[in-house]
Write a structure and sequence with these properties.
Elements: H1 11-36
Length: 37
C-alpha cells in the first residue's frame, strides 16, 4: 500500500496508480503465461 504525506488529498492519485499497477501486473502475468506455455 502506498503511504503518502498528503493523505486524503492524494487518495484519487493513489487509486489511479494502483489501477495502473494492477493492469501492468495483469498484462505481465498474461504475457508471461503465454511465453511459458
Amino acid at each position: 500500500m502506498i503511504i503518502s504525506p498528503a493523505g486524503s488529498v492524494s487518495l484519487v492519485t493513489n487509486s489511479n496508480f494502483l489501477l495502473l499497477y494492477y493492469y501492468i501486473i495483469a498484462s505481465y502475468v498474461k504475457y508471461g503465461a503465454f511465453s511459458l506455455s
